[in-house]
Amino acid sequence: xxxxxxxxxxxxxxxxxxxxxxxxxxxxxxxxxxxxxxxxxxxxxxxxxxxxxxxxxxxxxxxxxxxxxxxxxxxxxxxxxxxxxxxxxxxxxxxxxxxxxxxxxxxxxxxxxxxxxxxxxxxxxxxxxxxxxxxxxxxxxxxxxxxxxxxxxxxxxxxxxxxxxxxxxxxxxxxxxxxxxxxxxxxxxxxxxxxxxxxxxxxxxxxxxxxxxxxxxxxxxxxxxxxxxxxxxxxxxxxxxxxxxxxxxxxxxxxxxxxxxxxxxxxxxxxxxxxxxxxxxxxxxxxxxxxxxxxxxxxxxxxxxxxxxxxxxxxxxxxxxxxxxxxxxxxxxxxxxxxxxxxxxxxxxxxxxxxxxxxxxxxxxxxxxxxxxxxxxxxxxxxxxxxxxxxxxxxxxxxxxxxxxxxxxxxxxxxxxxxxxxxxxxxxxxxxxxxxxxxxxxxxxxxxxxxxx
Length: 453
Known about the structure:
Elements (H helix, E strand, L loop, with lengths): L1 H5 L3 H33 L4 H37 L3 H28 L1 H8 L3 H16 L1 H16 L4 H23 L9 H25 L15 H33 L3 H37 L3 H28 L1 H8 L4 H14 L3 H16 L3 H26 L5 H24 L10
Helix pairs in contact: 2-8, 2-9, 2-11, 2-12, 3-4, 3-6, 3-7, 3-10, 3-11, 4-6, 4-7, 5-6, 6-9, 7-9, 8-9, 10-16, 11-12, 11-14, 11-15, 12-14, 12-15, 13-14, 14-17, 15-16, 15-17, 16-17
C-alpha cells in the first residue's frame, strides 16, 4: 500500500482495478453458466421442465441474495485488515464468517426444504409443473450449506485481493456440471434418471465440491488466509458487526430481487409480446451488469484495503477512478448496443417481427444510460468497502422502489407512452440513482466509517 501511494497511485491503481475486476467478471459469467446448462438439457425434456425450474428461480435467488449480502461483511473486514497488514484478524474474521454462515445456511436449507410446496404454490406454479418445481426446490435447498460456504470463500478471497483462485474453482465445477447434468437428468447405466430434480442434484454435487475446495484452500494457509479451529466459536461482538455490515447488503440484494419480480407483474399486463420484449432487454441488461458488478467488487476490495491502511485519500482516488472507468466503459458498450439493437433482438427471437421491434426499442431507450448504471454500482462498491453498507442499500432501494417501479407504473398506465413507459423507467431511475450516489460520494460521509473490531 505504501509503495503504491508513493508512486502517485494513477496507473498503479488502474492496473489493480483491472487485474481484480477481470477474474471477478469471468467468475460471474461462469456462475450464470449453471442456469444456461440446466436450461439447455432440461429443454430436451420439454417446456414444462424449463418452466418448473424457471418458476422456482425467484425464490431461490431471494434466499441466495440473503447469503451473498451477509458474506459481504466478511469480505469488507478482510479487506480492511489486509490494508492494516493484520494477518491474525484476517484469519479470525474468516473463521467467524464461515462459522456464522454455517448456522444461517443450515437454517435456510431446513426452511426451504420444509416449505418447498407452499412456496411454489404461492409463486403460482400450475398443477402441471408443481411436482417438478417442488422437487427441484427441495434438492436445491439441500445445497444451501455448500453454496454459502463457497460464497464465504469467494468473498474472503476477494477481500484480500486473491480473485483468481475462486475463478479457477468455479470454472472446474461448471465444466463438471456440464457432464453431470445429462447424467443425473437422463440417467446412464446404474445411475437412475431423475428428470428435473437431477439438474438440481448435479448443481448440489458440484457446489459441494467447490465448498470442500474452498475450505481446503483456506485451511492450508497458502493463499492469504489460514483457518484455525480455535476461532470456530460464537463471538457475539463479531456477530453484531456481521449484522451491522451484512444485513443492509442482504436487504439491498433481496429487495432488488423482489422489486424486479414485481416489475414483471406490470409487464405481463401488456401481453405476451411485451413480456418477450422485456425478456430480451432484461437479458441484455444482465450482460451489462456483469462487468459493472465486477468493477464494483474490485472497488470494494481496494477501498477496503486503503481504508484499513488509513489511506482515505487513496480510497477516494479509487472511487473517482472507478466512476470514470465505469461511466465511459459502459457508455461505449451502451452505444454499441444502441446501434446493434435490432440484430441483437433478432438473435434471440428470429422471425418474431413485433418482438424484435419492441425489444430493440427497449434496448435503444435503456442503453445510453448504461454508464450511469455503472456509476451507481461502483459508488456502492466504495460505500461497501468503507463498511457503509447502509448507504449502498438506500441508494439501491430508492432507485428501484421509489423511482423505477412508480415511474414505470405512471408512464405506462397514465400517459400515451403505454408499454414504452416501462422502458423509459430504466434510464430515469439510472439517472436519478447515479446522481444521488455521486453526490453522496462527494459529500464524503463514507470516509469516517471505522472498524469496530
